[in-house]
Amino acid sequence: MLELKNVSKTFNPGTINEKKALLNINLRLNEGDFVTVIGGNGAGKSTMLNAIAGVWPVDNGSILIDGKDVTGLPDFKRAAYVGRVFQDPMTGTAATMQIDENLALAARRGLSRGLRWAVTQAERDEYREKLKILNLGLEERLTVKVGLLSGGQRQALTLLMATLQKPRLLLLDEHTAALDPKTAEKVLEATTTVVEKDHLTTLMVTHNMKDAIRHGNRLVMMSGGRIIYDVSGEEKKNLHVSDLLRKFEETGDGELSDRMILSAAE
Asked: 131: closest CA among 153, 111, 152?
C-alpha cells in the first residue's frame, strides 16, 4: 500500500545550515498495516511523513501509494490517497461551523458542489452512527460549533473526518502530543477502533514509547534520517520500553526529547 524506495531529503544544501533529514529510506507497508514510528529529535519522523504527503519534493528516490508513483505529485493531488491528522487539535476543522457541517465538508471532499449544500437528515443519521464509534458523546451534539469542543473531542473529530472517505493511507503526526494523558488515551482508543474497523493502512508518529508498543502491528525506529529498527508480530508484542531505550543508546545518534523521556517514566 505504501513503498518508499531510496528516498532522501536534504534541507538548505550547500549552506552552513545544511541538514540531511532522510538518507536513502526504504519502507514498505502492506495493506492494513498499522505502523508506529518513534525516534529522537531530528530522527526524520515528521520529514518522512511530509515527504509521503507531498509537502515538499524529495531529492531522490520514489514514493508509491497503492502501486501508483506519486513522487512528482504535490500535496493537494495526493489528497485523493492520503488522510492526515496533525499534532495541533485546531488544525483540520472549521471552528465556526457545526460538527455535522464539518463532517459534510470531509465527506464531500473532491466532489462537485452545487447550490444545495445543506446537510440532509440522511447524512445527519449517518454521521451520528459514525460519531458513536468515538465514544465521546458527540453523536448528540451535531449542531454544536466545533470551536466549543475540547482539544480531545476536536482531535477525535478530525480523525473521523480524515477517514470518512477511507483513504488508502492514513498519516498520524503525533496527533495526541498536545493532549493530556487521559484524553490522549481516549483518542488513541478511538484511533485503533477506526483503523481496525475500516482496515486502514496507517503510519503513526509518536513520542510516547509505551503507545508505540501498545498500538499497531509493527514498530519502526528512526535515527539520523535512517530506519534502524523494524519489528512486528510476536517480537513487537514482547517489546518493553527498556528494549527501545537500549536501541536508542546503541545508536549514539540524536537526542531523546523530554516528552520521550517522560513517556518512558509514566
From this structure: 153
Q: Are strands 34-39 and 19-29 parallel, antiparallel or unpaired?
A: unpaired
pLDDT along the chain (266 residues), means of 10: 96 92 96 94 92 93 94 89 89 90 85 62 91 90 93 92 92 90 88 92 94 94 93 92 87 57 51
What's the confidence (pLDDT) of residue 179? 87
pLDDT at 108: 80
Structural domains of the chain sorted by starting position, each given as residue range(s) with its CATH number in brackets? 2-93+151-265 (3.40.50.300)
User: Given this model, what pLDDT does residue 256 score?
Assistant: 58
pTM comes to 0.90
CB-based contact 160:134 (threshold 8 Å): yes
The confidence score (pLDDT) of residue 115 equals: 42
Report the C-alpha gap between 73 and 79 in whole angstroms: 10
Which 3-state string (H, E, C) describes the chain?
Answer: CEEEEEEEEEECCCCCCCEEEEEEEEEEECCCCEEEEEECECCCHHHHHHHHHCCCCCCEEEEEECCEECCCCCHHHHCCCEEEECCCCCCCCCCCCEHHHHHHHHHCCCCCCCCCCCCCHHHHHHHHHHHHCCCCCHHHCCCCEHHHCCHHHHHHHHHHHHHCCCCCEEEEECCCCCCCHHHHHHHHHHHHHHHHHHCCCEEEECCCHHHHHHCCCEEEEEECCEEEEEEEHHHHHCCCHHHHHHHHHHHCCCECCHHHHHHHHC
Task: Tell me how far apart the alpha carbons of residues 174 and 171 are, in angstroms, rounded to a whole number.
Answer: 10
